[in-house]
Amino acid sequence: MPLNVDYLKNLEREPVIQAYDWRDAAIYALGLGYGSDPTDSGQLRFLDREQQMQAHPAMANVLAYDGAWLRDPASGIDYLRVVHGEQEMEIHHPLPPEGRVTARIRVEELVDKGAGKAALVTACREIRDAEDGTHYATVRNTAFCRGAGGFGGKSVQGRQPRAIPDRAPDGSMDIPTQPQLALIYRLSGDLNPLHSNPEIARKAGFDRPILHGLSTFGIACRALMAGVVGNEPRRVRKLAGRFSAPIYPGETLTIDWWRTEPGQAAFIARVGERRVLSDGCFAYHQNPGQ
């Protein structure tokens, strides 16, 4: 059935307030595979409070998130048929390794692919300090809602796919994932059994539990930080991409990137020839002091 346009356009949700500490920041980083080399200071800076710890910028994607509206029958969305389509984060101020943040969800865009087809629902939230209002990040996630089209909306997204240059990448990095990575990443809040229960994964058409899309997204951020901005989280401005295929924990993720203009790079993430993140965009401060 088509989604409920009035419900989504007038969505009113209470703000979500979340307190986190350095342990939460470390668990998030472990869910991106950090710690694989316990002698690497570039990894330990996201794990150890005693080593000038910093929060990973991609942690913004899991903070103060409210996903209950997607499961509300009033939305007209069949939650069991929802697939995570795209993700985008903009960093306005570096996240502290511990703090208290707040955000309120709002629906920003609805795209109609036609009756019996999909609808795309893009939700946005601004993550701010709950005490002084510092604007840390703006996060957008697009849900691909199968069977929810036909409500009469526009058929084309406002944001168009980003072109990948037709040449060899300027850089590439392989990051192996541990077999238990999904079980670690879920400790950051996404308890969908698709990532932990083999029986449910098989019912969904997968051989075994798959890795969270946002873990893949964060690993891409990890690789781009290391390869493009000297592993300096303060230089990250924006990361965006489209989910193309799942990855199984234990597989090796390869991130290829192309510098396209000052302060920007295009990227993809793949497992072998299987592309798992497409249309990637990474924006960064050119000056390390910015």
- Overall pLDDT metric: 94
CA-based gyration radius = 19 Å
Q: Give the number of helices.
A: 6
Main beta sheet: strand number and arrangement?
Answer: 11 strands, antiparallel
Shape: globular
Helix-residue proportion: 10-25%
Structural class: alpha+beta
* Straight-line N-to-C gap: 48 Å
Q: What is the strand content?
A: 25-35%
* Poorly predicted segments: none
Secondary-structure element series: HEHHEEEEEEHHHEEEE
**Structure summary, number of beta strands:** 11
Annotate the secondary structure layout.
Layout: H1 5-9, E1 16-20, H2 22-30, H3 41-44, E2 82-91, E3 99-103, E4 105-112, E5 119-129, E6 135-145, E7 171-176, H4 181-185, H5 198-203, H6 213-228, E8 236-243, E9 252-261, E10 264-271, E11 274-284
What are the main properties of this structure?
11 strands; about 290 residues; alpha+beta; 6 helices; globular; eleven-stranded antiparallel sheet
Tell me what the structure shows.
- The chain is of the alpha+beta class.
- The chain has 6 helices and 11 strands.
- It has helices spanning 5-9, 22-30, 41-44, 181-185, 198-203, 213-228; strands at residues 16-20, 82-91, 99-103, 105-112, 119-129, 135-145, 171-176, 236-243, 252-261, 264-271, 274-284.
- Strands 1, 2, 3, 4, 5, 6, 7, 8, 9, 10 and 11 form an 11-stranded antiparallel β-sheet that branches.
